[in-house]
Amino acid sequence: MSGSNMSVPVPSNARKSEREVFKRLENILKSRKPYCSGTMTVNKDQLIIFYGRDENSAGRICLDDASPEQLERLVRACDPATFGVNQESVLDEQYRKSKKLDPLQFSSLFDVASLNRLLHEEFIPDRKQGVAIHYVRHKLNVYEPGSFFKPHVDTPRGGNMFGSLVIVFPTAHEGGSLVLRDAGKEWTIDSAHDIASNPDLCVGFIAFYGDVEHEVLPITSGYRVTMTYNLYYDRTSPTIVYVPTSVDDRYDRLKATFEEMLDQPPLLPNGGYLAFALQRKYGMDQKTDLRDLMEDLKGSDDLLLSVCEDMSLRASLRVLYRSPDRASHDVLAPKIYQLEGAHWEDDFCLAEFLESQEYHVNDENRVLRTLRLARDKIRDSTGKPADIWVKWVVKDDERRDTSPIRLRQSTEMNQH
Ligand SMILES: O=C(O)CCC(=O)C(=O)O
Ligand SMILES: [Fe+2]
After folding, report:
1. Is 147 near ligand 1, meaning CB less than 6 Å away?
2. Which positions fall inside the Fe2OG dioxygenase domain (predicted)?
3. What top-level class would CATH report for the domain 43-109+132-234?
4. pLDDT tens digits, residue range 262-308?
5. How far is the CA of 279 from the centre of ligand 1 (A)?
6. Is the CB of 139 under 6 A from ligand 1?
7. Contact of 284 with 159, CB cutoff 8 Å
8. What ipTM was assigned to the predicted interfaces of this complex?
């Protein structure tokens, strides 16, 4: 389930001034990069790795001035790297050709916490500014000439994992750029080049959100050694507030545009909601409490929520359900419904249909009788079986229906 690729037309009755404001809001929300990268100076000690697969093998390497022989010895101590498909580890050298050590097979003196400040300033969502980052070491990867890792998205490990961090050690190599792709854009990070052009001893780093596709291009010479971390929010540790030094005026611009929009009466003359598709993807299923998910928003989604909170606008996460034939009103539901095996009566309006699903869940006979149909019946605008999209709802009106899931009028932003 995701919200990033859905195209929702701006309602045809939106006025020109409204369209312009929507477009500006959209541009601000889409302008944040889903990663941050650079180089960080280190002392030589931080580049020492102790490694060994079992009790009978032990090695040590300093990844500053390691010789090809030392690097070859490290390669021999590693296993071929697998990758995750449907929760399983698969070995396929057409897809990923590299070597790796698991976290219990190596130790490193690298001080990852030195990146805290930078990640908070450049990468951590605004509402998470005070929350500490918990870095969990994932793998040591070793790429020889000819090694690569085709485009993939990292397997999320645990609910509050929000991203990945790659540390690139300063072993001389060429090729091996990390290419990131998100929402139709692409960025290439050539850490080997960045490290070589820095006069100080340094490592390269790239932190990116968990839903960003990435790829390691083939290594053409030398050895590329990386250490990966899974990034979590650490809610148990004390919160630290950094004062960002970089200037990011998106918050102010978003707030000003919002104010302008709300000051333009009548925005929604008959009442209604203003809904925004989430920019980032989140894992969820029927058990997901959308209120918990609100705590884990990333990037622009989090920025939007902070602006809403700041302006005392009631905001919540909702799932948008749209009937197959668009004959009834859309429903912004406060939860994810179990549609597997549900049955759509032709004269149902969508809200009634969803309510009936709730009712039938514990009614075994009805469920048996109504097996099949629903997945086929709920379709998106292109005719494919519908996916579930999570939307923002930020503006409503006193005259709103009392039913929590009925929508009288929705105004949505175009995603493209
Ligand atoms: O080594 C890298 O640069 C990236 C490795 C990676 O994408 C992974 O381990 O999932
Ligand atoms: Fe990856």
Report:
1. no
2. 132-233
3. mainly beta
4. 776 666 666 667 778 888 888 777 778 888 888 888 888 888 888 88
5. 23
6. yes
7. no
8. 0.99
